[in-house]
From TrEMBL:
This is DUF979 domain-containing protein. It comes from Vibrio agarilyticus. The lineage of its organism: Bacteria, Pseudomonadati, Pseudomonadota, Gammaproteobacteria, Vibrionales. The keyword Transferase does not apply. The chain crosses the membrane at residues 6-22, 34-50, 56-73, 117-137, 149-170, 196-226, 238-258, 278-300. Keywords: Membrane, Transmembrane, Transmembrane helix.
Amino acid sequence: MLEYVYQATGLLLIAFSLQSFLDKDNPKRVGNGLFWLIYGVTFLFGAMMPHWITGVMVLALTGLAAAGFMGTGNYSTTTEEQRKQSAGILKNKLFIPALVVPLGTVCISQLTDLGALIGLGLSSVVAILVALVITKSRPIHSLNEGRRLIDSIGWAAILSQFLAALGYLFNKAGVGETVAAIVQMFIPENMLIVKVMAYCIGMAVFTIVMGNAFAAFAVITTGIGIPLLILGQDGNAAIIGVLGMLSGFCGTLMTPMAANFNVVPAALLELKNKHHVILMQIIPGLVILTFNIILMYSFAF
């Protein structure tokens, strides 16, 4: 059933691409249309295509984004004044569709055997229907607004998938083993605090570089966490794993590579400084990282 969710996502992206091709107010409509068309095809037919074709399509996406062939156009949507007026009428009802998604996902994943991803897909469909009822809008409005939002985000909308794949490749290439060898060369055997700092800070830094704490976790835990802390110091794997992942999330707060957390909100809120979200999160991120180091050193061994 998960494949149906992917196919529905692909159909939506292809609909965005067709709208882009027909948008005469967008000087880059061909680039936009091609980007979302290729991306949509990977969702719609990904399970049926040879892997090398998918790889070529990923390179095509990279080329379109890097060459600056993407832009914004006309979305036949409401004006800012109309949106403010509607928000004033609906008030807190606007949060209902947003709450449907996480609540529905949790309920479906916990009460059925469908899993979280399928729950997310089904909850998203229900949230759209709820939003249409609350706002008394037509389905075409959701399509237009969806395209406006995804064009505002641009290529960064798919950055998290790229980075997750990169982390998988790094792990397959043995980067974790290389990191372990380098760390063991410079860290004294009897200095536990230094090893804890190397693991937590390594998780944060690698996440800053890759933009994905899950990808960093595979590499840094394989290279530092397991050999130096869990096996080398007989540490509590649960505590080390949880605080290590949380340290990675501290890096997420401080990097533009985590586009879905830091760049996307800035684009959606139309902030003048696209890095404003990151600047506001650096100090809390460093504070939490320091607290993680103290907790791991105090309770994991």
